[in-house]
Amino acid sequence: MSESIRDGRFVELTYKVTDKKSGHILTRVDFPLGYVHGHNEILAPSIHKQLEGKCAGDVIEVPIDGNQIFGARDESLVFSDDIENVPEEYRKIGTSILMESDRGQTRSFLVTRMDDETLTVDGNNPLCGREVVFVLEILTVRDATDEEARAGGAIIADADVDPSLMRPV
Questions:
Q1: Bridge-partner residues for 153, per DSSP?
Q2: pLDDT at 27
Q3: What whole-number distance in Å separates Cα of residue 112 and Cα of residue 124?
Q4: What CATH number labels 9-69+128-165?
Q5: Cβ distance 152 to 35 under 8 Å?
Q6: Is the domain 74-122 a CATH 2.40.10.330 member?
Q7: How many CB atoms lie within 10 A of CB 141?
Q8: Helix, strand, coil % (nearest 5) of the chain?
Q9: Radius of gyration of the chain (CA)
Q10: What is the pLDDT of residue 6?
Q11: Nearest C-alpha neighbor of 90 from the set 108, 102, 67, 76
Q12: I want to staple 38 with a disulfide (CB 3.0 to 4.6 A). Which of 7, 79, 107, 144 is the partner?
């Protein structure tokens, strides 16, 4: 009998996120992502809820409204500047730039557009304002070891590393 996902179970899965409207794949994780269910939520709570009761070998699709998770798009978080004002290392589409406001708050911005004269960054979450579908393939479901339960995820064995310093993967 196959073990099903519930609290305390170690789960490994892969997933991809597609834009519901266009069908384009926005991101994918092809390497096994391991966590202890109920102890280390690595994805949105609504996705974890849909995983409960599923077994290794199952593939599920979970539609997500990005506005519900990340809020509505805020166009004030999108701005352009003359490319000469932007350091060379940030002049590539997809580059993440951590910026700090006058009040000391930090936010990650993503370079979304660039031409010979200007560079545009966007501080909105890339899934904000989109309806997406998470397609998850469950690879492993088993009881978590005591060590995995304490860490909340997979343990990477390395003889040169102090086990107390290991964190969930």
A1: 35
A2: 87
A3: 11
A4: 3.10.50.40
A5: yes
A6: yes
A7: 22
A8: 20, 40, 40
A9: 20
A10: 94
A11: 108
A12: 7
Length of the chain equals 169
Following DSSP, what letter does each residue of 87-114 receive, concatenated? -GGG-STT-EEEEE-TTS-EEEEEEEEE
Structure-block tokens of residue 163? 């086990």
Check: CB of residue 138 under 8 Å from CB of residue 48. Answer: no
CA distance linking residue 169 with residue 39, whole number of Å: 13
The beta-strand segments (E) located in the chain are 9-19, 25-36, 59-65, 78-82, 96-100, 106-114, 118-122, 131-143
> What are the pLDDT tens digits along the chain (169 aa)?
569 999 999 999 999 999 999 999 988 999 999 999 998 778 888 899 999 999 999 999 999 998 888 888 899 999 999 999 999 999 999 899 998 888 888 989 999 999 999 999 999 988 888 899 999 999 999 999 999 888 877 776 554 444 433 333 3
Which residue ranges make up each domain of the chain? 9-69+128-165, 74-122
Of the candidates 130, 128, 121, which has an alpha carbon nearest to the alpha carbon of residue 94?
Answer: 121
What's the pLDDT score for residue 164? 39
Residue 26: its pLDDT value, please? 87
Distance of alpha carbon 21 from the chain centroid: 20
